[in-house]
UniProtKB/TrEMBL annotation:
PANTHER family: V-TYPE PROTON ATPASE SUBUNIT A, VACUOLAR PROTON ATPASES
Protein's recorded name: Uncharacterized protein
Topological type in the membrane: Multi-pass membrane protein
GO cellular component, one term: proton-transporting V-type ATPase, V0 domain
Predominant place of localization: membrane
Coiled coil: 103-137
Keyword Coiled coil set for record: yes
Protein family (similarity comment): Belongs to the V-ATPase 116 kDa subunit family.
The entry's keywords: Coiled coil, Ion transport, Membrane, Transmembrane, Transmembrane helix, Transport
Localization of this protein: Membrane
Domain of life from the UniProt record: Bacteria
A Gene Ontology BP annotation from the UniProt entry: vacuolar acidification
Transmembrane segments annotated in the record for this chain: 362-392, 404-428, 448-468, 480-503, 515-531, 562-581, 593-617
Length: 658
């Protein structure tokens, strides 16, 4: 239930030492740097200033080139086995990829190929567009360019609506000497060739304008059909060149993984060059602040002594409990480490709060196991996670998640043994039954009421655990009144209320309803008197107290909410049983083998997925609402140390390391 103890550090050194120092800090990966603000520092630091944030345009451009190359080569990246490992490199080996001449040549080639592909794509687009237009006028069997070069006559291409052919009759009547030939139809327009003497050409053109007859101004240097054929030749040639460009990219695909390492190198150097924007500067001095885990502070001192003997000044101070700026690093051991992501999904604790992960893990395993409760499903989950961890090189965060589900699988197996269920079939029934036969420890057919009561009991324990955590948080935060008023008093109220109910129904034989009623009444009065204590006004105190008493009703809903544990467990068991029953009803030996097996496999796979999804969601819900709601505020900011960016490599500290 601990949070990593932090120390706040401030380091002052000379500008000319900053690059060397930041490289080593990045390799150590232990300092979470603070983005400094000048106005929040003491007066003796006023000689410092905050520089305008700098951007490394050269590296950003380099990164953009890498992104372009990766995007181009991704379709041709070599296929890797799922068991393949990330390359293991040191920090120095990774950074060498930044200036690798072979990679620079790859980027140049890819850029050239992409530019050529772009030109070819534009040419293809243009040729296809031209053909779309030309295909409408294949009936024109001459060059319009040659037509415009006629010297003794004037030729026009005009378009007349087919529904308005009277315009053509009027044209022939007005200018009987014209040569008029209808060449073809485009949509609803008739395209005609009109030839007139030069002396009459202006008069004819004026007529066209007066009658709003469109004159088609085409510049075909060859007949359209011939141009279409030429364009098809261009299209075929361009597509061949495009295919060759893709082949050239494919030939470079084997470099994809090396370029990913180069991307890690660029991101590493880029983060180092940009982190300086968090610091304060003078002409010669660099000042930085941050947080380091207490256990790593000696490493920082040793590093500074080794790199900058007598060229630095460092101050460290213990972080105060109420410092909301302090980054949070959870500190759990063993199995509890793998369930930290569940806490992080909700919110990290602040520095003066308990980390609820360890207690939450215990209940999460119980809830998840009872909601699925099948040995077969648990074996699939556990073995699947085990093989994945052994065979696949996961990144650290994903590895922790897989390990979490590995332990969840074990919980599902144990609860499956309680239910005696494997894929919906009862296989473990050690309890003898009166009248003969045996049954599971918890029979989903006959022990439903007992299981319901068991889930409610687990829920009460869960809620009381939250109230205990509330008291511990109050102690850490030195809210000693809160230990009693917000923790002990609530537990006494709930316990006395429950005992009053049980005594009144004669379920328990000790005590009397009157005694428990008096205790319950005193507790209610205590809640009314204390729950509004934070308010300054009398009215606020009274209202807060009454509202606190009203909050007792929410506990009823919280406790009833735990019945979902049994509901999900029973629904999964019945669905599995139903699919097994359906597969068994298929007639015939062959039918049972083929269709019965298909139904069983499909049904069990579906139920497996739905059971895991439902258990994951509802187990989280019980933690976040019923448990965390009693004591946990959260709101802490994550510890993000300044470190090497190793998305695509596995980092090793030295060449001697395996």
């Amino acid at each position: 239930m601990a949070i990593e103890k932090m120390k706040k550090i401030s380091i002052t050194t000379f500008h000319d030492q900053s690059e060397t120092l930041l490289k080593e800090f990045q390799k150590s990966g232990t300092i979470h740097f603070k983005d400094l603000e000048l106005q929040k520092l003491p007066a003796e630091y006023l000689f410092l200033s905050k520089q305008t944030p700098a951007e490394d345009f050269e590296l950003l451009e380099h990164k953009a080139v890498i992104d372009t190359t990766l995007k181009a080569l991704k379709p041709y990246m070599p296929k890797k086995a799922i068991t393949s490992k990330r390359p293991r490199l040191t920090y120095e080996e990774c950074c060498l990829y930044l200036c690798d001449p072979e990679l620079k040549e790859i980027h140049r080639k890819v850029k050239s190929i992409l530019e050529k592909k772009d030109d070819l794509s534009q040419e293809l687009k243009k040729a296809k567009s031209e053909n779309t237009q030309l295909e409408q006028y294949t009936f024109i069997d001459f060059s319009t360019t040659d037509m415009k070069r006629l010297t003794k006559v004037k030729a026009f291409l005009i378009s007349i609506k087919t529904a308005k052919q009277e315009i053509r009759f009027d044209l022939e009547k007005t200018f009987p000497e014209l040569y008029i030939e209808e060449l073809g139809i485009v949509k609803q327009d008739a395209v005609s060739l009109v030839i007139a003497d030069l002396e009459k050409s202006q008069e004819v053109q004026a007529y066209f304008n007066q009658q709003s007859i469109p004159i088609l101004d085409f510049t075909f240097d060859k007949p359209p059909q011939e141009l279409i054929e030429n364009n098809f030749s261009r299209l075929n040639a361009a597509e061949l060149e495009l295919s060759q460009c893709n082949d050239d990219l494919k030939a470079l695909g084997h470099m994809y993984d090396r370029i990913l390492i180069e991307l890690d190198a660029v991101n590493t150097v880029l983060s180092r060059n940009l982190v300086i924007n968090n610091f304060l500067n003078s002409r010669h001095v660099l000042y930085m602040e941050g947080w380091v885990p207490e256990k790593d502070i000696t490493e920082i001192y040793d590093l500074l002594d080794q790199l900058l003997p007598q060229k630095y000044y460092i101050e460290t101070e213990q972080v105060v409990q109420d410092d909301m700026e302090t980054p949070i690093k959870l500190k759990n051991k063993g199995i509890f480490t793998y369930f930290e992501s569940i806490t992080e999904m909700f919110s990290l604790p602040v520095y003066n709060e308990l980390d609820p992960t360890s207690i939450m893990t215990i209940f999460y395993l119980i809830f998840f196991g009872m909601m699925v409760g099948d040995v077969g499903y648990g074996l699939i989950l556990t073995l699947g996670c085990f093989l994945a961890l052994k065979l696949i090189d996961f990144k650290e965060k994903m590895r922790k998640t897989i390990k979490m589900f590995f332990y969840i699988g074990i919980s599902v197996i144990l609860c499956g043994l309680l239910y005696g269920s494997m894929f919906g079939i009862t296989f473990f029934a050690p309890i003898p039954v009166q009248g003969g036969g045996y049954k599971p420890i918890l029979d989903t057919q006959t022990d439903i009421v007992f299981m319901l009561i068991l889930s409610l009991v687990i829920g009460v324990i869960h809620i009381f655990s939250g109230l205990v955590m509330k008291g511990l948080n109050s102690y850490i935060q030195k809210d000693y009144a809160g230990i009693f008023c917000d923790s002990i008093l609530w537990m006494l109220t709930l316990a006395s209320g429950a005992l009053l109910l049980l005594a009144g129904t004669e379920i328990i034989k000790f005590g009397t309803p009157k005694l428990f009623g008096i205790i319950f009444g005193i507790c209610i009065a205590g809640l009314a008197a204390t729950q509004g204590r934070s308010s300054k006004s009398i009215g606020g105190k009274i209202g807060g107290g009454l509202y606190g008493v009203y909050g007792l009703t929410s506990y009823i809903g919280d406790i009833v909410s735990y019945t979902r544990i049994v509901a999900l467990g029973l629904s999964g068991a019945y669905i599995a049983f139903s699919f097994n029953l359906m597969s068994g009803l298929i007639p015939g030996v062959i039918g049972k083998i083929v269709f019965g097996t298909l139904i069983a496999v499909f049904g069990q796979t579906l139920n497996f997925g739905l059971s895991l999804l439902g258990a994951y969601v509802h187990s989280c819900r019980l933690q976040y609402v019923e448990f965390f709601g009693k004591f946990y505020k959260g709101g802490g900011k994550a510890y993000k140390p300044f470190k090497v960016e190793n998305e695509y490599i596995s980092l090793k500290k030295s060449n001697q390391e395996d």
